[in-house]
Amino acid sequence: MRRSTVRVLSFWAVAAVVVSVGATTPPAAPAPAASPPPPVKTPVAAGYGGAVASVDADASAAGIEVLRRGGNAVDAAVATAAALGVTEPYSAGIGGGGYFVHYDARSRTVRTVDGRETAPLSADRSLFLEDGKPLAFDQAMTSGLSVGTPGTPATWDAVLDAWGTKPLRTLLAPAEKLARDGFTVDATFRSQTAANEARFRDFPATAELFLPGGKLPVVGSRLTNPDLARTYEKLGREGVGELYRGDIARDIVRTVRRPPVDPGATRVVRAGDLTAKDLRTYRTLKQAPTRVTYQGLDVYGMAPSSSGGTTVGEALNILERTDLSPDAATRSRYLHRFIEASRIAFADRGRWVGDPAFEDVPVKGLLSQRFADARECLVRDDAVLVSPLAPGDPREPGGGGGCGPAGTAAPTTYEGENTTHLTTADKWGNVVAYTLTIESTGGSGITVPGRGFLLNNELTDFSFAPANPAVHDPNLPGPGKRPRSSMSPTIVLEDGRPLLALGSPGGATIITTVLQTLTGHLDRGLPLVDAIAAPRASQRNAATTELEPGLWNDRPLRDELEALGHVFKLNPEIGAATGVQRLPDGRWLAAAERERRGGGSAMVVRPATR
């Protein structure tokens, strides 16, 4: 989808207001502050000293400035994420959570931090049931019930403690200034606000922030968030513990338990049961990544509670035995194989992946080449698998359910599609792939009064009820449980050194976006920025496969695939990926979207074209 405008007032510029005062005449009204034109977003950049890629120019600039001042990739990732909390508040922020994948150049190791939100300690399987029936999604989303304990501030604290070099206060300073001085509203921001206008109006703090003067923000106008600026200043000065044990924690609990709804609103907004203990006892999890070998490269991803690493990894293993290069595979054969590998991997994800603190997740089996080979034998070049497809059993020799009798299938449950991803690298060779979210566009719709940030609706990523009562569902709610995610921050190494890193927003489509971008680059030979820009398909063990317009409108290609039995539906836009790549000559290349979400922003410290 083509969107017309790019965001952003550079926070490094200061708008001047000139007031003329006559000697004997009344003072003139101040001239309105003139917003400088938004900087042009660049989807690709190459050079030295490090790289940052995000959806937003101000956010990427914040990360680049940290790199210029001697910070590393982790420092830059935190600064970029904080700025995205200002300019992309409907996708990310300190009211949400995410997953952080880090390559350490000194030790040549990949480590991860699970900063996923958690359910209240009082939660059980009936969290989203009333009278034994699941709530409608929109009622669950816009409620205190959907709010999990935020993990983003704790993630920043954990990664800076483990690998960072700069204090949090320094890294929050650019975002604090951006929140105070404002950013330029673009068409995407306005359209996202318009889509949420009705529910935003039901929460006075949200309406005051995002509907200035009671109206939709105008494209080209400047939007400020002084409450968030003060919140960032407080976190920088006193530490993120303020959000988990201090005044901010108390405000979050009060907001969730007694949602501040406009007295005139007719919407029923259910209260949640988040407590001070839930915030006080929250912990991020440092854990080993998932790993598979593909085309001689090591592909690292996020282990459960995210399903990203296992599902991308299984699909790559299924594709490993097929030559997908343009010389060996037509576009239709490539897409057919990609779609079928995705279908199978999602069938297995739905049965096996949940929070490993509550579920026995057979990660090793799901990522084994033996299991993938047993599942790959289902794929035919002259027909399409029927969805929902039954899962295999990675615990059994030969991957039970592979090419044998079909078991019982369960369809993929819905996940919100709005998230953001950033990727950073530094001059020492450290790399970060970081995906963060507040879940749906605008999260729960509930802003913490006086604090300037939206609360997540992440708990709607749980299954409200078993998708199929005959199949065990590992993603039902539980006390302190992390809902299953599809976030797939990914780092690829060649001979122990970074080759590329990438990720995307998009709910469950994140997995297929990352998989298609990887295979587009590694198998089809597309430059990274072209692999990101390529029109996408997404199959998630459903009867239909979603296509972006670039594939939907390719009638000859669709005819070939439909002749095999594929059924398609149009999706105007899937994901918004970013990535970085280490070039053979030592330069870093940053890559982002050309058009999706108004285009992304790729920057390097010292541009060099050779």
UniProtKB/TrEMBL annotation:
<keyword id="KW-0378">Hydrolase</keyword>
<protein>
    <recommendedName>
        <fullName>Glutathione hydrolase proenzyme</fullName>
        <ecNumber>2.3.2.2</ecNumber>
        <ecNumber>3.4.19.13</ecNumber>
    </recommendedName>
</protein>
<keyword id="KW-0808">Transferase</keyword>
<dbReference type="InterPro" id="IPR051792">
    <property type="entry name" value="GGT_bact"/>
</dbReference>
<keyword id="KW-0732">Signal</keyword>
<feature type="region of interest" description="Disordered">
    <location>
        <begin position="388"/>
        <end position="411"/>
    </location>
</feature>
<dbReference type="InterPro" id="IPR043138">
    <property type="entry name" value="GGT_lsub"/>
</dbReference>
<comment type="subunit">
    <text>This enzyme consists of two polypeptide chains, which are synthesized in precursor form from a single polypeptide.</text>
</comment>
<keyword id="KW-0012">Acyltransferase</keyword>
<dbReference type="InterPro" id="IPR000101">
    <property type="entry name" value="GGT_peptidase"/>
</dbReference>
<feature type="region of interest" description="Disordered">
    <location>
        <begin position="470"/>
        <end position="489"/>
    </location>
</feature>
<feature type="signal peptide">
    <location>
        <begin position="1"/>
        <end position="23"/>
    </location>
</feature>
<dbReference type="Pfam" id="PF01019">
    <property type="entry name" value="G_glu_transpept"/>
</dbReference>
<dbReference type="InterPro" id="IPR029055">
    <property type="entry name" value="Ntn_hydrolases_N"/>
</dbReference>
<comment type="similarity">
    <text>Belongs to the gamma-glutamyltransferase family.</text>
</comment>
<comment type="pathway">
    <text>Sulfur metabolism; glutathione metabolism.</text>
</comment>
<dbReference type="InterPro" id="IPR043137">
    <property type="entry name" value="GGT_ssub_C"/>
</dbReference>
<keyword id="KW-0317">Glutathione biosynthesis</keyword>
<keyword id="KW-0865">Zymogen</keyword>
